[in-house]
Amino acid sequence: MLAGRSAKLVIADVRWLLSSPLLWVAEGDEGIENLRSASLSRVSAALDDLALAPIEALVDRVGAPPKSHKLGDYFEWLVQLWLSLDPTLHRVSSNLVLSQGSRTLGELDVVLENREDKSWIHLEVAVKFYLGLGGDSQALWFGPGLQDRLDKKYYKLNRQQLMRSTSAEAQRALAELGCERPEQIKRMALVCGVLFAPQGTDYRPRLCQPDHLKAPWMTLSAWGQCRASKGRWSRLAKWDWLNPHLAVASSQARGAESAASLAGETAPVMLANELGQCCFIVPDDWPRRAWQRRSEAVHAWRQRYAGTRFETVFSDCHMAFSITRRVEGGQCWPEGFWLGADTPGNTAPLSERDNQARREELRQRVAQLGLPAHSMKTSDPWGEYPEWGLFVEAEAARWERALLDIAQSLGQVAIWYWHPERGGKLRFL
Question: Which helix (H) or strand (E) holds 182?
Answer without folding.
Answer: none
